[in-house]
Amino acid sequence: MPRIERRTDTTVWPTAARHAICRKEPITPTARHRRIGPGLSGLPPALSNTTPIVMALVITALAALPGWAQADSPAPTTTQTASPLAAPTETQSIASATDSTATTPSITPGSPTIQALTSDSFMTRKRALDALMAQPPADATPTLRALADGQLYLQAKPVARLGIGTAQNDILDPITQQPIGKTTDAGWKTVPINNAIRIKLRPRLDMIDLLSPSVDTRRAAANDLFSARLNSAYLKELKALRPKLTDPAVAEQIKQLIASHELVDADPAVRRQAVEDVAGALDPEIHHKLERIAKSDPDPTVKALAQKTLQSIDTQIAGWNFAQNLVFGLSLGSVLLLAAIGLAITFGVMGVINMAHGELMMIGAYTTWLLQQVLPNHLTLALFLAIPTAFLVAGGIGVLIERGLIRFLYGRPLETLLATFGLSLMLQQAARIIFSPLNRAVALPDFMSNSWVLNPVFAVTYNRLYILIFSLTVFLALLLVLKRSTFGLRIRAVAQNRAMARACGVRSGWIDALTFGLGSGIAGIAGVALSQITNVGPNLGQSYIVDSFMVVVLGGVGNLWGTLVSAMGIGVLNKFLEPYSGAVLAKVVVLVLVILVIQKRPRGLFPQKGRAAEE
Known about the structure:
Elements: E1 3-7, H1 15-22, H2 45-48, H3 52-63, E2 77-81, H4 112-117, H5 122-134, H6 141-149, E3 152-155, E4 161-165, E5 170-172, E6 179-182, E7 188-190, H7 195-209, H8 215-227, H9 232-241, H10 248-262, H11 268-277, H12 284-296, H13 300-349, H14 357-374, H15 379-404, H16 413-435, E8 451-455, E9 458-461, H17 462-484, H18 486-496, H19 498-503, H20 508-530, H21 545-555, H22 560-581, H23 583-600, H24 611-614
Antiparallel strand pairs: 1-2, 3-4, 3-7, 4-5, 5-6, 8-9
Helix pairs in contact: 5-7, 6-7, 7-8, 8-10, 10-11, 11-13, 12-13, 13-17, 13-20, 13-21, 13-22, 14-15, 14-20, 15-20, 17-18, 18-20, 21-22, 22-23
């Protein structure tokens, strides 16, 4: 600990002089008066014989002059130990929290660090936390994580100690992890922190995670360090830590991170090496720094190297953007496929224009929301239960619609369109009455709530990927039902030649009802998927009904493979047009292109062949 000397030169009245003043006697110079000035005996006799009060005023005035407050011997020296956690004064010099001469902080009960955290002074507590984050002990990782989560507790008496709060309201010892109290106890209080402490705490935890045995944790920490605020001390630690990293991907990221801070170094040789180290880096901040160097670096060698590196990085970014747009387009196409595949059955196979198809998707979405309300703590189970439940509910309503309305309108497409349009309005109003007009949010399960991040310019949310896989699964399952099952055989028989199928003993009326129910059930499943990417509301289906008809007509009425190709094609084309024209104009361009294609091929890209197509 550094020792600070403080010299006290305060003038002190001698005891004899004070007594003389009280007795109203003349003050006689003595050896003890030498602390007041250089010899009172040298005073003029007139002053020596003055009244005690006047003499006292004179002595006070002389003592205030420079040189009078001197003693024959040095003044007593007061030495005190300066704590690195104590508040600084005018004569003290406080060591920095990262100074190697300062005592390493400790989280053991009663340590100076913990004692400082109990102080009423905010600056004292802040210095203690800064020291703890700058030089954390080996056993302080749980403590720092609890501090970041707001679960670090402090007890001031009988001994100052820290504790980690749990979800069960227990307080655990940060070293032994044994229960030592309850969060409801009066003696325990949370350790308050502010944004400045959070900013310093974030890179410290990331640097701890760089040595984690988990690959995902190490790489997540390396990615997070790029957006953290790193000072020179952290960069110095990263350089020392880099040889210890065994993961090549993490080591490369840390290399680029260090180089990104050295791009603004004053030394041209350091900048040149930093430009070479960031070759292939896709981080936006590094790209921005390279752009500035390529435009205005004073060193021509560094400037030329930065331009060459920037050109190579831009080529890589263009490739990754193309891949990301392709994935986003396939994701949008999968949503259109789910919305249109049920319509391809009712419209393509049965010839029924069902304008209430979007409301059947809405019913499936509300089914998902209701199951989450019943099972709020089991979101994954609720989602998997919602798939068959939505199929049965929407399919059952579809059978009722066919039996009660559609079967009286076969062969009359205009009346069918108007009847189903009115039915869609009725279903929307029923949803507003039952569930209110407000949108309902459906929570994502844990396995769908994150993103797949390959690099800073390519990231896809898991819910989109799972919907893509789910839509292809539903498509293949529907193909198997139609091609490999007895029910599918009867559907195709009724669709191709109703009279011949009835002559063979097929009950065409119930096949029509079950076929409409199958298309409606798939629409309900589509609503389950849509609830994972958007809010659930009465108007949910209206956003997809036009696109669904466009997909079915473009692909070829009654052709499931054509529906798949047209859905994916429209989705990909839409996503590639959006960066240049915007979302609304991209939809308009796609609609115009679809109309032009239908003008050339009125039956779609993949029309049906055979007797059914001729009819």
